[in-house]
Each structure stands twice: as C-alpha cells, then as structure tokens.
Amino acid sequence: MLLIPCPWCGPRDEAEFHYGGQAHVAYPENPAALSDEEWARYLFFRDNPKGRFAERWNHTAGCRRWFNAVRNTATNEIEAGEVTA
Amino acid sequence: MAERLSPLARFTPVSADDLRIAEIPFLTQINLRVDPKSRAAADIGLALGAPLPTEPGTCTSAGADVLWMGPDEWLVVGPVGDGLEETIRTAAGTAHVGITDVSAQRTVVAVDGPRSRDLLAHGCALDLHPRVFGPGRCAQTMLARAQVVLAAREDDGFRVFVRSSFAGYLADWLLDAAAEYLPEGTVTSR
Lengths: 85, 190
Ligand SMILES: [Zn+2]
Prior knowledge:
The complex is a heterodimer.
Chain A (H helix, E strand, L loop, with lengths): L2 E4 L3 E4 L4 E5 L13 H9 L7 E7 L7 E7 L5 E6 L2
Antiparallel strand pairs in A: 1-2, 3-4, 4-5, 5-6
Chain B lengths: L13 E2 L4 E5 L3 E6 L5 H10 L10 E2 L4 E6 L2 E6 L5 H9 L5 E4 L4 E7 L3 H6 L16 E6 L2 E7 L5 E6 H15 L12
Zinc ion binds next to loops of chain A.
Protein name (chain B): Sarcosine oxidase subunit gamma
Organism (chain B): Planotetraspora mira
Pfam families (chain B): SoxG (PF04268)
C-alpha cells in the first residue's frame, strides 16, 4: 500500500485517495477549433514515463481536496504533494 | 405521533471498566464553507466562542465543537436543537458563506475509556497515540473501511462520526473488535 502525502492531512493510506491521472493537462483554449484528432489527443493521450510523473490525486476519504504529487513510476516514491486551486 | 429513531436506536450501549461505547444521537451538525481569511469567518468564530481552527486536523470546543474538514470547510457540532444554524447565519450576515444542516448525514458514536485507542486501532491506519492524536485532534479517515470523522477528547474519549447508513455496520464491527476488552458474555453473537 502506498503512503500518499496529502498537503493538508499528511501521509495517508492509498485507499483514502482517488487517482486523477496526469497533472498539468490544460483544457484547450478554444475547444471548438480543435480537429477530432487534436480533441482525442487532449482527452485520451497521456505521458507514460518510467520515472518521475506529475499526477493529480483527490483525498476522497479525507479532506476531499485535489492536489498534485510527483510519483516515480518505477519505484513508487512520492514527492511531497502540492496544493492546487 | 411519529417516533424519531436514530441510526443506532437498536444498539445496546456497552459499558465496561476500560471501555464504553454508546451512540450520541441527534446532535446538531452544520457544514460550514467560508474563506478562512474573510471577515465572515472571524465573525462566525466570535459567535461560536473561538476562532475557526485553521490547522488541519484540529478542532475547538469553546461553545460548539468546530472540526476542521478542509482549508475552507468545518463541521460545527452542538447539542440537539440549540439554534446553532441561526447563530452561524446571523454572524455570517449577507457574506458569501455556505451553511448546511447535515445533522441527519452522520450519527455519533462515543468510544470512551483507557481501551478506546486500542479498539479503534484495530481498524484505523492513523497513529492514535496521544502524542500525535490527543485531545483537540480530529481526522477524516477510514475505520474498518467505513468513512468516518474521528475526534479525540479528554480522558481517552473519542467521537466517531459515521454515515447513518454505515452506522449499523460500524457498531457491529466495534462490538466484535471490542470483545477482547469486555467481560465474558458482554458481546453475544447473533
Ligand atoms: Zn487530505
């Protein structure tokens, strides 16, 4: 079980969290101007690095806040979570 | 006349030397959302007898109990029907504040006595040692896989806030986990 550092509540069991996928995926500025392929890339295409990966997490069973954390996908080491708006 | 039944109305309280478990039904619970830096937050704190706790995982118990739920969210808990919502509404005035009565959302189980920490530790991953989770600390977490709010009180006492629909399950689990701390025959299998 991973111990995930919620920036508000501190380290908690993985079971208290909901995964939110890759962080910093910006919503297209002008969605209507996107081609089908560009839209599909925005919706479905994500990085899949071996190593550091910035992800979104929600502390569903705790404070219910979203935050970003960097997880090493090879070792599962997690760097301290960062508060997001 | 309709009788009001609490979620654990059928639960027989447990009372042993080292451990007591009982429901505290029908407490008034108000969910409060407000910018902690706002004037309204200060005014509400004043009306409740203590500033809203801004350190994560802490609660104040000046008049009503005020539990930290998030950076802009608190759970205010008071006795049955004491006009808590009105008090907060009056203090908030016309400011941008969310005040919601959630009294029916959860019921409260009081777990008291020197064995309370040992009992809760059977199903809770948090460190409940008094050095870490002493009086004035609270947390939203999982107890026996059910979502709960835990609040530590003086004298090894805890308040366990549990969703009404999970209350029966959690009470059964507490009884089962408590068997080793209770005199023979206290817990009967059903
Ligand atoms: Zn949290």
